Amino acid sequence: MKNIDSNSHVKGTSIYLDDIPVRAGTLYALAYDSSCAHARIKKVDYSTAENYPGVIKIITHKDIPGQNQIGGIFPDEPLLAENDIHFWGMPIALIIAESEYIARKAKKLIKIEVEELPVITDPREAREKGHLIFPPRTFQMGNMDSAWDQCEYILEGRADSNGQEHLYIETQGAYAFPMENGSIRISSSTQGPTAVQKTVARVLGIPMHKIEVDVTRLGGGFGGKEDQATAWAVMVALAAQILNRPVKYAVHRMDDMRMTGKRHPYSSDYKIGLSKDLKIQAYEVTFHQNAGAAADLSPAVMERTLYHATNTYFVPNVKATAYCCKTNLPPNTAFRGFGGPQGMFVIESAIQKAANHIGIKTRDIQAANLLKEKDEFPYGQIVKKCEATNAWYATLEKYNIKELEEEIDSFNKNNVNSKKGLAIMPICFGISFTNTPMNNARALVHIYQDGSVGISTGGVEMGQGLNTKMVQVAMHELSLSSDRIKIETTNTTRVANTSPSAASATADLNGKALEIACAKLRERLLECASNYLNIDLVELNLKDQVLYHNDTKTDLSWDQLVTIALADRVCLTENGHYATPLINFDKSIEKGHPFAYHVYGTAIIAVTLDCIRGRYEFDYVKLVHDFGLSMNYAVDIGQIEGGLVQGIGWMTMEELLYNDNGKLLSNALSTYKIPDIYSVPKIVDIESLNSEGHELAIRKSKAVGEPPLMYGIGAYFAIQNAIKAFNSNYKNSFDAPFTPEKVLMALYS
Amino acid sequence: MISFILNDTTIETLQPAGMTLLDFIRYEKRLVGTKIGCREGDCGACTILLGELVDGQMQYLSMTSCITPLINVHGKHVVSIEGINGSDLTPVQQAIVDESGSQCGFCTVGFVVSLTGECLSRKISSYDDVVGAVDGNICRCTGYKSIERACNNIHSHLKEKDISNPIPWCSKNKIVPDYFNRIVERIEHIKPLPQSIGAVTIGGGTDLLVQKHDDVYESSIQGLFGKKGSIGIKVSEGKCSIGAITSVSELMESEEMIGMFPNLFNHMKLVASTPIRNSGTIGGNLVNASPIGDLTAFFLALNSSILIQNNNGDQRDLFLKDFYRGYKTYDLAVDEHLIKIQFDMPRENTHFNFEKVSKRTYLDIASVNSAMSIILSGMIISDIHISAGGVAPIPKYLAKTRAFLLGKILNEKTILAAIDIMQDEIAPISDARGTESYKRLLLRQLFWAHFLELFPEKFELITLKSVAQ
A67, A569, B96, B300: which has the fewest C-beta neighbours closer than 10 Å? Predict the structure, then answer.
């Protein structure tokens, strides 16, 4: 089944935030933000701006009736700056005007005096100075003290990975309408409607039931609209409350890039020890997470870094410590992979370094340490239904790794101006919100009088194909065709207290809740039929919109069943609630069973370097992925291809640049480059691992949103291997992204 | 009053000439299928087609409406997605649906419009052409592989295309609605705008509307776009002259230019993207005076001169290399315009090469670019011109390097000695496009690349590298 939204997408009739018809009297909001990264505000003069024709009001923190606080995990982030500025682009005031144009004009008229303070952009410096968002955490297993004695090879080093701009093509935005009795309805481009509702209530000082948040769809999210969509929604709601007018804010791209947080840059130190048989005996790693100026989701992101510190390998002795470092960058936030990729990059770097030191292939170490059934993760979960080894060997055999390596060697022997490199990237990614209480969802299903069905869940469609999968679940449970099922907008008044659409778990959680709701309705209809026909319930079932008695078609269609049920005054509305079973985690000992299951896979990636110019092209990515039993292969393949290319982008051309004053230099699409159609691998071969899936995955179809991004990490090492083929003096350094600049410098180092 | 046809509707509007077409379409006409992604022509979410009457037929080109001023569409046919939609999906739309080439959908319309433009083109569409049509469209969801498959699907439809009459063919095949067949007669009724003198002179608008969006909106506009007719690209008496209003696409497709520069397509492919090349002009690139202007680098190495005219009609000539004074400043009075650029046609023994490296190979601004033309007598360098962008406050003509090289024997030693001179002649700074040391190294590499590309039988990277060490 194709993505059910694609018909309206190709016609341009899908509705995004900025497409909502504008109501008469709508005002436009624009944030006045700081032009320095750390300062004390001495004075702000709004007088000229306030008097500019068409400016309705300039809202400051003094106008906030509730709390000036939008922090999700910790209350450490004001909506509008009061006395202090903590990052470049921090909102100080909100200009409300009759048009965006007027607001832009007025913004230039605001004058500010500040006392600038020292700016920190480096997480290591922040740690040295004691600027931590919260105390460090350590995951440990085995005995580090004795572990090093068993090691033949011990290597230490540093690995850095830069951040990543989400670059959803639809920028952030929200639109608020005042309703009666002080209620407010907000359309928001958010992955987390409940977070918006809760935060608006807090800032406006009104109960949550007065706030309705509605989301049709997002033009991309990737984590960037999980927590960071909230501020804009709060701004328009605040203005709507104060002015009793509809207020809209569709954020300009450069404002969005400057003011929002991104994937966390990490700077890490590792020490890896291997015994003679290439078993990793010990791994010690310290992560410095660049959290930016406030907590946002950093604590949770950092936690996932720790969970994935050993990627898909079993290491008996592990000590992984992470510091959540407070700097003067915009608060960094969720981004596909959520800290996992940063953790994996470090151990892959360590393995590459060890392999180079020993003088063997990197894959020899990778293969010797793959997770096996009943191994233990450093966080205490026991490995079950392990596919690490299966995925690894399926990939190497399916694509004939030896032949691929020989091709590369032979190319490199015969070419001077260009060189090829190959790397293998295995992945293992845990599925569930690491914060156990968040792993729940609800679905509301109405069967209408004509037999058509309306479904609301807590999940947000952002391109991942959630709506399509939800239709499939309902089709399956209710035996209906897709045209009888409509997926409604995501709305806090229909489905409340939801977790954000994140952690790859949206289809699992909401799909399971939907299954429950649909199953109840199906049972109820069958009971009606049983009474009506006087046939035992167990002999009845639904198929192709018709009632069957055992295997025989009856005269009763779905529509007739609905009519009968309604005549019997049976409730044809149902709510399904699902909470993931089994999972738990005890932070006091940092042990537990946090994940419902893991997703595995292995990718081979090859690159060709232009050794004259330092440019590169990826020849192919060939991978075997653990889909489980994919319920929609087209949608899932799209997630793999998209995630992979996003991961390659992170490792190659996507370079966030802040100057020492904390100003973002890569602040537009002209200076921050994401992959275009010519920069993707020429060939992407994807095969499905032969596996049985997992019962905690929706219809045994494993979560697929985040894991494929991490295949892209292989790009870094493929480039490194190609450089070595040209320049034998090259010394490995692990500092992603591998931009053409770094490549050229390495080729001629 | 600006008048044009928007989809099937004739528009007459008093909106400012400098308003962006995007804002007009979305906010004045509520046609919200066209999306706002970046407002700087770098994502393609706002792509529209601009149809112009050429030789009695409509010719459609993709452009980014975010940086197209309203004045540039006067007398033309603007096509947004709403003007493409029929009752059923078009083959282009169907291909994207069938190949799952749309995920969040926000960029999708831009892809549909660009691909429809390729269908309407009066030329054979190879698979590479179809992919090339979306070289200005950025998608963050799909990783493009499904879009490549959709391109392949569309390409198979286009094998039957009637390239002499693409519009009737496209409407018959439901790629565009029937009303496209009646645009020619309607467009002829729109009278040209009277010649205006405005505070802001705009060609394609591809830089001004990025940098000075609100200023342009507020200003009176002197529009130049689409007024190329009188000059175009001409070759006579050993000289080639190119009107300043010639678009990059026109340059790229010019048979005269391809005759002189067989690698022109590959060189120009490195410049911007299809929709930007369709609207951006040669003159605009030169007077933009960006130190990394790609065309500036190209023409500097041809030792081009430019013709400048003031409002009284007085004309003067000067070498392009003498035009630039400092960062973004140049020798042009307020009442003067660039009319054309001229250069001596390459001779049979002239070798020319253009190089550019950026973070992303396509649709990006150069870290460093360089062009070189060289004439050899035997192995003696009898003439040479070299340019370098991104290494100085101005587009750099490497005069000292040229002086050093003239009359020298072309060999590795000469090349390496020239690099020392070159390094003294440039002054790169560290910025978002690279550090100073990178730009110095990169220029050396691009200089090597000129020789490796032009004389592959004479030079090898490995020798240059070892001599350099």
Answer: A569
